[in-house]
Specification:
This protein is 32% helix and 28% strand. By secondary structure, it is an alpha+beta fold. It has two domains: 140 residues, D-amino Acid Aminotransferase, Chain A, domain 1, CATH 3.30.470; 77 residues, no CATH class. The protein starts with 8 loop residues before the first helix and ends with a helix.
Length: 242
């Protein structure tokens, strides 16, 4: 079913940002063009490049402007340095040649043992047209050591436990996160009426603010299968069938 839904981060951003309540929960995002890039780097000393069609956090690059006038680029756990703006521009031209990218302000996510984490929140609805969206499962993903993206992880833990460990709130914060995911699902449904499942990545920054990182239309269910509590996995499969 989900082949119908185009995986495009820019289209999704525009759909979500048209809803005022969600707009404040989205990191500032532009399509990668030179002017937009310069403006973003001036505003935020650190930005993130993501391919519009990217999956599993691959090819996500963090670019940081250093006081020395050089630029540091981190992709997965490797880092390169560009000596000046021209060198960076040449590199950007190469990167943007074959794929479309978005550029976003970098979020400074809350951490557990010095590693950033975010939350995967699964929302689904039944096949009947009048069915409402429900949160059917969630877990926290902790980044591997040296990585800035949580997609490279071998650790998933329950959301409440993660919030507790990071001192990032409790049940009230989780309710806020779930409400945000449900509202985001409703707003994407307007554009994709047949959409029935979305796995949202939701971040909480160091100040406790909730951010929508993105929604995945074909979420990986294996982490749910690995959780000690199997009720979430069973519920997700039930929703897929009914």
């Amino acid at each position: 079913m989900s082949m119908l839904f185009q995986r495009d981060k820019w289209l999704q951003y525009r759909a979500l940002s048209s809803v005022p309540l969600l707009a404040s929960r989205l990191p500032e995002t532009q399509l990668l063009e030179q002017e937009a890039f310069d403006q973003m780097l001036l505003q935020h000393s650190s930005v993130v490049l993501k391919p519009c069609d990217g999956r599993y956090g691959r090819d996500i690059m963090f670019i940081r402007r250093l006081k020395t006038g050089t630029y540091r680029i981190q992709n997965e756990n490797s880092t390169i340095t560009m000596q000046n703006r021209d060198e960076l521009q040449d590199w950007l031209d190469q990167v943007g040649k074959d794929r479309e990218y978005i550029i976003q302000q970098r979020l400074y996510l809350a951490r557990i043992q010095q590693r950033p984490f975010d939350l995967r929140v699964m929302v689904q609805r039944q096949k009947t047209t009048s069915s409402v969206w429900r949160v059917t499962g969630s877990y926290a993903k902790i980044a591997s050591r040296g990585y800035l993206v949580t997609n490279v992880t071998n650790r998933t833990i329950p959301v409440l436990k993660a919030l507790q460990l990071a001192r990032a709130g409790g049940r009230k914060q989780l309710l806020q996160v779930e409400r945000t995911a449900l509202l985001a699902a409703k707003s994407l449904e307007v554009h994709y009426p047949d959409l029935r499942q979305i796995g949202f990545d939701i971040g909480i920054d160091k100040k406790g603010r909730i951010w929508i990182i993105e929604g995945n239309y074909r979420p990986d269910l294996r982490p749910f299968r690995r959780l000690k509590d199997s009720s979430m996995y069973r519920r997700i499969l039930w929703y897929q069938k009914h």
